Amino acid sequence: MASESLGGQPTTNRNSQRYLLVRFITNETVATKVIEQTVRRSVQDMVGKLGSAEMNVRLIGFQEADGRAVFRCKSESVEKLRAALALVTHVDGNPAAAMVLRSSGTIKALKARIPRRRPSAAQASRVAG
Amino acid sequence: MRTYADLHLSPPLDNLANARLMASVLAELQTRVVGLVLPPQRLTPTPPTVDAFKSAGIDVAKRLNLKPSSREELLRSLRRFRSKYEVVSVECSVPSVSRVAVRDRRVDLVYFPKQQLGSIFRGNLARSCRAAFEFNLSELTSGPSFEAGLHRLRREIEVAAEGSTAVIGCTGASNPFQLRSPRDVAAILHVLGLPLSAAVRAVSDLPIEMVEKNRLRMIEPGLEDGIRVIRRSADDE
After folding, report:
1. Residue A63's domain spans which residues?
2. Interchain CB distance below 8 Å, B25 and A82
């Protein structure tokens, strides 16, 4: 098993992740980049840059039409990410709200609800860190 | 599956479109019980806003927000309105009101507005508090100083935990943009120092138990806490 340890040493360095399906309520359609920046700012406002780097938050996908996004973070940071999302009040200067609809340990469970974003390596940017 | 509640919603009672939008968002968030602020003069007939929530499958509890300026005013209002509402909340902006509100069993929730300088939930209040301490997310997000708000809230949660006072999380939303998932409100409470299990109970079990208990009291006003009528004999009827 991957999580078993050998002589106190973990067999893998892989951290467990958690995925959140988030609904953004806005007056106007917003771009993926704006959502990414808004969440990054909210996370940094709450836990600072160091905390934000430790949370390792990434935007996996965003559906502009219905304002649904999937975020990924370390499993121990889920509550912090939920809190940071709840503190989002504006997106691009307009009133907005972010609400977590579902949390899952695998992307598969949320995949049916939102298409996955596959940006090029140059475009890929971290929400935090 | 856990049932969630948001005991503080104050949408404009004449704006039906706003209420319908809020109801649809709440239904999506799986919030099953809401506390809707209804002033005494709007209690009957029931405003159409209440029906908008009910038609979305949400259980609506009538909530009264009391903002007394003195102890006498608080007692007078409680005597007059307690039996008509499922949830009674008191805004403790004056120390004399706070001292009475935390002890009175007719008060369900106490709320300490951040703008008032003398309004702080201190240890002596927490130790004698029979009501639950209410956390309003909208106040934290709309206040002038976010850091000061977080600091104060953290201290109040600490005080509540030391005094074994129940904490209840609400949004205080008046429009869809102020709504949040109850589980997210619990996450804020957890980040601010409440254990996760207590934070989740603050938005699920505790508010629901409070509403159920008060509904029983409204049916049988003469009964004390913990006593329920199971069956009546033929002579009573």
Report:
1. 16-107
2. no
Kindly give, in sequence order, each residue whose CB lies less than 8 Å from that of residue B160, ignoring residues fewer than 6 positions away. Answer: B121, B126, B129, B133, B166, B167
Task: Give the ipTM.
Answer: 0.88
The whole-angstrom distance between A99's CA and the closest CA on chain B is: 6
Phi and psi at residue B15, to the nearest 5°: -95, 95
Sheet holding B4-9, edge to edge: B4-9, B31-37, B59-66, B87-91, B109-111, B132-136, B167-170
B177 touches chain A (CB under 8 A): yes
Q: Are A10 and A16 in contact (CB under 8 A)?
A: no
Tell me how many domains chain B contains.
1
Beta bridge partners of B136: B170
Interface probe for A, chosen from B184, B192, B200 (most Cβ of A below 10 Å), is B184
* B225 part of a folded domain: no
Residues B181, A46: C-beta atoms closer than 8 Å: no
Q: Which residues of chain B have a CB within 8 Å of the CB of A100?
A: 181, 183-184
Here the CATH number for the domain that contains residue B199 is 3.20.20.140
Residue B174 is given by DSSP the state: S
Interface size, chain A vs chain B, as Cβ–Cβ contacts under 8 Å: 56
**Residue A108 pLDDT:** 85
CATH assignment at residue A77: 3.30.70.3250
Q: Has residue B158 been placed in a domain?
A: yes
CB atoms within 10 A of CB A117: 15
Q: Is residue B70 part of a domain?
A: yes
Q: What is the pLDDT of residues B111-159, one digit of tens each?
A: 988 766 666 788 888 888 999 999 999 888 887 778 888 888 899 999 9
Chain position carrying tokens 């949370």 = A55
Strand, helix or coil for residue A112: coil
The total domain count for chain A is 1
Nearest Cα to B210, choosing from B71, B55, B106, B67? B106
Tell whether B191 is within 8 A of chain A (Cβ): yes
A51 lies in some domain: yes
Q: Which residues of A touch B183 (CB under 8 A)?
A: 82, 100
